[in-house]
Predict the 3D structure of the following.
Amino acid sequence: RTLALQLIEENIDPTDLESIEKLCEVFSFRSTFENNHWRFFLGDREVTKKIRTPKVTELASKIAPYPFVRKAMSALQRAHAERNNLICEGRDIGTVIFPDADLKIFLTASPEIRSERRYQEMQQKFPNETHDFEKIKSDIIIRDATDSNRDIAPLRCAEDAYRLDTSDMSIEEVVDTIIKMVPGS
């Protein structure tokens, strides 16, 4: 997402593979975990909210299949994991980035529930903007299909992952269920 934001901010065309590959070679971002929240930075500038916008989400999904993007982002994520204990989320975290993770959980929910959750999230994070529920739902369905059918690192549940359908669960119920999955908890 941070790479997608930088492409947008530098007006790099998402089909300009040469420019994107050059950016991947020098790209860096940092993250911090403070007061129970992750914060993301490009340089010294915090971009935590900006990387969650629909435009960034859409572009991130478009550039994710590029092999040089996958390679660069995977290397950054793995380097971060070497220095920290962490919990990661992502569409290929358990199958490609960290296939040997101690615990893998594949969270799922119906498109309707995910759309409602995303709609509520957008209203909270961007209260001064108009949000279209049907567009959000359509985008989720399209992204799922695109990511599930891509050639490189398709969206799928790792064979050794717990599969957890959260459609009928509150956040608290999801957290409680996951905590019980952690060895020694």
